Amino acid sequence: MKALVIAAGRGSGFNGHGPRSHKTLNPVWGVSVIERILAAFPPLEELVVVTGYEHEQLEEALTGMFKNRVALRFVHNRSWERGNGLSVLAAREALSGEDSFLLSMSDHVFDRALVEKLTVTSPPHQGCLLAVDRDLPGVFDLGDATRVRLGGDDTIEQIGKGLARFDAVDTGVFFCTPALFDALAEAVSRGGESLSDGISVLCRRGTMSARDVTGCLWQDVDDMRSMEETRRRLWQRVAKPRDGVVSRVLNRKISGALTRLIAPLPVQPNHVTVFNLLLAGCAGVLMASGHLLAGALAAQLYSIIDGVDGELARLKLRGSWFGAWLDNLTDRICDWMIISGAALSVAGGGSSAMAWILLSLALTSNVAYRSGMDSLLVSGSLRTLAAGDGMLRRAEKWFGEREMVFGMTHDVYLFILALGVAAGFPLATLAILIVLETLWWLAKTTQARRALPSATYAEYLQARKLEKFNESRKQIAQLAAH
Amino acid sequence: MNLENRSHNSPLTELIGILRQRRGVRPIIARFAAAGIVVPVGAMFLYTLGLLPVQVLLAVVLSGWLCWSSGRMELQRDSAAEAARRSSLVATHTLDAALLVGAGLFCHLVWELSSAVMALAVAAAMTNYLAYYSGIAFLKSVPAPVRAASARSMVELDHAFLATGSIWGAEREIVLGLSALGLLAGQPEIGLAAAVAGGNCYWVYKSAHFWLKAGLQ
Fold it and tell me: What is the model's pLDDT at position B127?
């Protein structure tokens, strides 16, 4: 699939106050608007960008930005100071031969969920599909929004900024067929040069439909106020839904401030992960050398910063499979370094044998606890099965309802450990954690074995095959009936 | 729409392919499963008669545990339910850690070797644990769209991973095997150091190979 982005305008809303000369290059939490647009699109065959104002600088910047990421094609619109419909029309040749394509303004930030909702079906024959938001009170600067009046079957009756009666607003993202170009040409021949004029032609033909994307993230970024609003809305989406109690009450508040502070800097999430590894090492060394308070503070700081890499990855669209894997692994190394430091601090009182025994028990119980928690309860395939097949639906329900209530999450574990060590009771704290971990593991394993069904892998495969067989049998019956 | 994209699913397919390639080795280990019980029992009998030094007994127990548990995992591959296999695997790796750290404790406290042997035992246990946990971490970190789009691959991957314990297959054998060899030779420090170095080198090589090949770093 190809996508078209209209980036010909000057961006007068910023009045020279924007960080960059082109509004599409303005960074929002360290990532330019156009990078966010590309991240929201599905993998593209080609990205067509219509340029106009200071086109050479923009083309140079985009070429450097998207090198090895997407095939770029620039179309220069010499009449960029006139209506934006002419910019779309300029891309007609670049998109010839396409059955459908995505169209977006260059100053709109939106998420992938919006595009996925929009493209779940093809656009209407000889028409277009527009993503609209029906949550009117939630729209920022409703007065400036392009308004949409809907008819029956989600067709669009009328579109424009001056509509007095309207049902939704335009999000600036379209799923189009080449019929849009004919409509624009017709509008231009009648003196209408804006995209809304072309869309109005399609509305009159009855081939312009709306797709409700209420709840998805989108925001027009055309002045400093809307830029601030975009930053706020993006930040709201960063929170992790399954945080533990310490994270919710303490860690996220501090880590959030840190993330917002470093987001505009060229710091990558993996840098934070590696820094945290060093911090946990320092915590372990400080504890082992008898500096209990400093060690405990470093351990808690590690727990706080542990949230920053994930927040940064989500905020700056830098999340990667490898990064998530590395983060999970370093968490375990960090845990062991802190536990070792706490256990060895006991040797400072002259009981070396006790320290080593404590360390052995603490590490062993930690293996059972963490592996049990992650492998038995939150492993990907069980959740997939639960969601997809219904075979393990009972287990999924069980995880969702009980995990956060009774589970001792990573943040809670580290907080108890840091608190105990800071108070000068590493031996007692580790002993309590060993007992809690072991009891938790035994209880959860027993419960999970009761909750999970006794399906084997072979049975699962058989169920899938039967499902496919039944599906094809139904399809054949339907065909025969027709 | 983009969920069915090949680039999303290919690392899963890639990993499944890698795991499949080494499946042929597993039944050989499974054949030693019985020996994993018989030999340590015999060794204990000889130890009570005073015919076997204690470090040799420890080495036999470690290697016997390795053979028996590997065989058990192989046997459970297709016969046991998901939950039973999963909890049994967690227990196996917990016991791995307990045995390795326990061997270090024995060498330090009973055999009165330096505390370095204990540190090495902890490092060996950690090597083995991280090798196991890297599989769990991989499953945890699979992006939601891939998970939703490839339920079949996820289950196959989980199954293949669960059947072996460690994601690349040989870390457990390297760590437990070299530690047992060190004890058998009367040089537990060297054995444990070799286990740490060997296990980590193998894991780093295999992981780098996978991530570079998958092109997702």
Answer: 94
Average pLDDT, chain A: 83
Q: Of A198, A214, A232, which closes a domain?
A: A232
Q: Is B84 on the interface with A (CB under 8 A)?
A: yes
Assess whether A186 and A267 both reside in one domain: no
Q: Which of A357, A367, A379 sits opposite B139 (nearest CB)?
A: A379
CA torsion angle A190 A196 A201 A207 (round to 10)? 170
* Number of domains composing chain A: 2
Q: What are the pLDDT digits (tens) for B23-57?
A: 555 556 556 666 777 788 888 888 888 888 888 88
Residue pair A36/A81 in contact (Cβ under 8 Å)? The answer is no
* Disruptive mutation site among B19, B141, B166, B172 for chain A (greatest number of A CBs within 10 Å): B141
Domain contains A479: no
Q: Do B91 and A383 touch (CB under 8 A)?
A: no
pLDDT confidence bin for A471, thresholds 50/70/90 = low
Check A325 against B141: CB less than 8 A apart. Answer: yes
Residue B29, number of CB atoms within 10 A of its CB:
18
Domain ranges in chain B?
2-214
* Partners of residue A387 in chain B, C-beta under 8 Å: 148
Contact pairs from chain A to chain B, CB under 8 Å: 170
CATH number of the domain to which A312 belongs? 1.20.120.1760
pLDDT digits (tens, 9 = 90+) for A56-72: 888 999 999 888 888 99
CB contact under 8 A, B134 and A360: no
- pLDDT, residue A303, reads 94
A245 shares its domain with A228 = no
Q: Which long-range contacts (CB under 8 A, 24 or more apart) does B74-79 make?
A: B74/B26, B74/B27, B74/B29, B74/B30, B74/B33, B74/B163, B75/B30, B75/B33, B76/B163, B77/A457, B77/B159, B77/B163, B78/A456, B78/A457, B78/A458, B79/A456
Angle formed at CA B186 by CA B184 and CA B188, multiple of 5 degrees: 90
Q: Which residue has the higher pLDDT, B215 or B211?
A: B211
Residues A312 and A351 in one domain: yes
Segment 13-72 of chain B within 8 Å of chain A by CB: none
A43/B5 Cβ within 8 A: yes
Give the pLDDT band (50/70/90) at residue B5.
Answer: very low
What ipTM was reported for this prediction? Answer: 0.85
Percent with pLDDT over 70 in chain A: 81
**Domain range for residue A324?**
241-451
Whether residues B7 and A43 touch (CB distance < 8 A) is answered with yes
Cβ–Cβ of A381/B93 closer than 8 Å?
A: no
Q: Give the model's confidence band at B2: pLDDT under 50 very low, under 70 low, under 90 confident, else very high.
A: very low
| Integer Cα distance of A27 and A383 in angstroms | 36
Q: Which residues contact A5 (CB under 8 A, 6 or more apart)?
A: A24, A34, A37, A47, A48, A49, A50, A103, A104, A105, A106
Q: What is the largest CA-CA distance in chain A?
A: 93
Residue A196: Cβ within 10 Å count = 21
B4 at A interface, C-beta within 8 A: no
Contact at CB, B159 and A333, closer than 8 angstroms: no
A477 domain residue, yes or no: no
Does the pLDDT value for residue A246 go beyond 90? no
- Rounded Cα–Cα distance for residues A45 and A19 (Å): 30
Strands A208-212 and A72-76: unpaired
Size (chain B), residues: 217
Which of B79, B115, B127, B133 should be substituted to probe chain A, the one whose Cβ sees the most A Cβ atoms within 10 Å? B133
**Residues A343 and A416 both lie in one domain:** yes
Chain B contact for A453, CB < 8 A?
Answer: yes
Q: How confident is the model at residue B151 (pLDDT cuts 50, 70, 90)?
A: low
